[in-house]
User: Fold this.
Amino acid sequence: MKIEPAIRRILVLDDDAFILKIVSHTLRRLGYDQVVTMGSAAQALTLLRDDGDAFDFVLCDLNMPEMDGIEFLRELADRGFAGGVALISGENSRTLKIAEDLARARNLAVVGVIEKPVRAEALEALLAQWQTNPQGAFSLDPPPVTPEELRRAIEAGEFVAFFQPQIELATGWVAAVEALARWKRPGKGMLLPAAFIPVAEQHGLMGPLTERIMADALSNMTSWRSRGLQLGMALNVSVENLKDLDFPDRVLAGILAAGMSPASVILEVTESGFMANPVAAMDTLARLRLKKIRLSIDDFGTGYTSLAQLRDIPFDELKVDQTFVRGAAHDETARTILEASIALGQRLGMAVVAEGVENQEDWDRVARLGCHLAQGYFMARPMAGADIPAWVDAWNARHVHG
Assistant:
């Protein structure tokens, strides 16, 4: 096997000498001949301090005496380690998930987790993933954006809507699309929300950004209708929108100006949106519902929604967060939350959308549990509005079954 320059030297850290021997032997058999093994996290940190730039990848056990893997990863992050990182552990999936999330939150490029006993094929696949992706692809640091740049870009119309289809699980029919913000930044290509949403939220720009995306989405919707394609439209609503008591009137005016029915639009509200100003949020949501604009509670299970809010606010739809959908295959806790969320939505008479459907197993599971709609990379990635009609025609021709 030919080794690309992305991985030249690997550090393996584990307090179990047998594991070190097995992993080292496996790596060398795969063609990685520059492997250094260490049984102590403190010694490994000393080595990295003295010769850190020489390592491109670190395989780290979590459960070690004296300094455990969480502490080691924290120290690794403090040293600014820029290589790939993988966790090796026999801990349960919840502990692994916490450790992985912590490492990523500290801007370590965590490629994945290998469960013990270590299998050669799992190790090979994980290293191949790092080899075939640019090292920056795992970075959590988006390109820097200033509030002034963002404000200018909104005014210049550089933000556009991309659309991800939502499929009826019972029939296979494309029922709706969700509008997602994209920034066509001159000279920088297409930027995803992670690059600009935090700045917009911190500097009071979510309101104008939301309305810009909404206007572009409705314009595309009008274009599709002229070609005979009738799709529902899901639009994301920000906390700033919920604080704006005139927002419902502007939304309705925009929908009617586009020649659409209010019932064809559903506004997705994240759970955290309720906390900024509960009274104003309730006022805005109630008025939107009176105008026959449908409401969806987005990312359900990750925020602050209480059952009382589900009771008091007339939501039409519950959208289960992707972490519970794609995690259900291997995480019992995620699977339990997924099942409970779907059952709750059903009992409350709400449509239930599963986001983050990434493979056939995810699709089959949410269909079996009674979800109404599915959204995710298994069906389609977000695409430009001009691409939607042809994609929908092709999908419906192959997949509609009722």
Remarks:
- Residues 1-5, 134-140 have pLDDT under 50 and may be disordered.
- The chain has 17 helices and 15 strands.
- Residues 62 and 288 are 49 Å apart (CA to CA).
- The radius of gyration is 24 Å.
